[in-house]
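Q: what does this look like with FE2/S2 (inorganic) cluster bound?
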Amino acid sequence: MSQQESMRSPKGLPDWPRQLLRGHKLEGYRYTSRAFAEKEWAHVWTRVWLLLGREDEISRPGDWQQEEVGPESILMVRQSDAGIKAFYNVCQHRGQRLVVEKKGHAGRFVCPYHSWAWNTDGSLDFVQDPEDFPEGNPCGKLFLAEIPCDTFAGFIWVNMDPDCVSLRDFLGPVWDEWTAYGIEKWKRYVAKTTLAPVNWKIVMDNFNESYHVNTVHRPRGSDVEKLRIHSGVDTRYTTSRFDMANEGHGRMIMLGGYAGPAIGKTGVVGEPLATILREWDLDPDDFAGKGEATREALQRARRRLGPARGYDYFDQLCDSQLTDAYHYTLFPNFAVSLWVDGFHFLRARPHPTDPEQCLFDNWWYAPNPEGVAGPVRTTAGLVGRDEIVSHEIFKPGEQSMGLTIDQDMSIFPTQQMGVRSRGYRGSYLADQESRTARLHELVDDCIAGRPPWET
Ligand code: FES
Ligand SMILES: [Fe+2]
């Protein structure tokens, strides 16, 4: 029996199918070659659904948001019928970008070059000297280039392929699993973007495995700190579950709400779990020597008290979802840790021209039920519940992305240097790194004209 087959199943959620991997060697050129990055652009980035915006950030007709993916800039615009359309951010006169800011509100998009004015539905409303065009007045004739756009979990997703599969088919089992939480109502508590000096797959490889956790995120400090289980999550691969969906997405489930064996030695439930237990009317001292019991106790407490505290969706979740860490990776570039009360996403977007750089985003959303007080726990520390968090964009190292993410990022640049070396012979992967291997297999499948959504 393989390590994956021996994993326990999260009671209440359907299993994902098994995948046979081909056994990929991840060679250095995949992270450095311009020719390979161009193939990825043509066969991956311009064919997949990409999460680019948040519905409630462009709520009124005329509100817009602009985001970059590689060399492209995509403009998402709220329509007068309450729908959202997405366009390439490019004027059809002579190619000027229409907006450079990230967000705004417009009655029309007036091009800064010759003042052509585009309606928010993409039609052309005004040009100077309309009688002077040998091909005829472009108004009524020309439109902004629109691309497929859909919404799910409160996010705006776009796809540069006009013949793409539906977002629902693309997401596969992720659709139903995320729907249960009502994430569309959750509020933003962290929004950070930086330029990372690495290929986008260096980032995503890392979030597709937990093999690095005991090294890169090793608890440091006092003896008690060193013994504590990281964030109350049991990160051992032997107790974790690893899944890969036919559609190309990954899921890794780790036991959470778990004080673990450490308190057998110290008699202390580590933070933040001790605080979480108290929040759910449990006394951490009752679990001295019984570290394995905290998870189930927390599940029972949340099941009993959650709905009355405003967490109405707890009824839709299975016991495992009430405590455990559900780490999803959506092909190709989106990693989510879904907690019972937190949606933490990390995203890597390709650089416009350089395969050895990428845009790296760190976001956190959480429910904010009426009557619940106290700060929200995020990767970037505690954030006030009613705080309005703006999007921070900064150069590498200028600001912290949050302790855990900073630890991941401290490894990335030197790995990028290593995979560029003539002496690197390609990867040698553990079974628990299968999702990393699969990311690369899927990239190759896309390049070969066999994307997962067509097989
Ligand atoms: S490029 Fe936009 S009006 Fe000329
Ligand atoms: Fe990590």
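Confidence is low (pLDDT under 50) at residues 1-9. Residues 403-419 form the longest helix (17 residues).
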